[in-house]
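Section 3.1: Structural characterization of target chains.
Under the original work plan, the team committed to producing a structural model for every single-chain target entering the pipeline before any wet-lab resources were allocated. The record below documents one such target. The sequence was received from the expression subgroup and is listed exactly as submitted; it comprises 218 residues.
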Amino acid sequence: MSKSIQLFDGMTDEQVQTILSKLPSRKYKKNHMLIFEDDPIEKIYIIKSGMLKVYRMYEGKELILGFVKKHEVLGEIELFSDGNALSSVEVIEDGEIYYLSQADFTTLLYENKALLKNIFRIYNQRFKALNRQIQNLTFHSVHTRVCRTLLDFIENSETSTDLIIQHTNQSTIASIIGATRESVSKTFKDLQDEKIIALESKKIRILNLSKLEAYANI
């Protein structure tokens, strides 16, 4: 497990286990609010299991900025900005999370120089993802945005070889791409009619990946 934690990339198992053995953890149930937007944030979180939703409220509507899953880190941006939480974070799948204070995390950075390099790499990944999301919202139709979002889920899924997307629905997709539920529903119907996707119980199955990529202008 330790080798898969993005924050500890390049470190030995022994180094990582030494760090994790000193960290407290807590189990969280689905729907628990871990962080509220604009509240002070004083901890760094490392996801041991489960999944979190990161979002902001805009004009009374929820805009999903992304998801944080197993082995990923959360809260490090506020560490360097010395500000309040930039967004709200909700647990959407039962899980367990390691946590440590910002002071302890700063100490870790001084003791393990590889961590700082990994932090910048994580920043870069998130910047690219945010830039891609802005481009989708600005330049593409709802149909294209839906297809691109489905591909993003497949790319980031731990079971991508199965071409199955879990823990999402049409309302979630609408919140991600900034569209109405009705317009997303119409797109889903079109994709089903063309046998590109199939909706199953709490799952979306990709039936024709190459055609989905074509519609996403990849």
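The longest helix spans residues 113-139.
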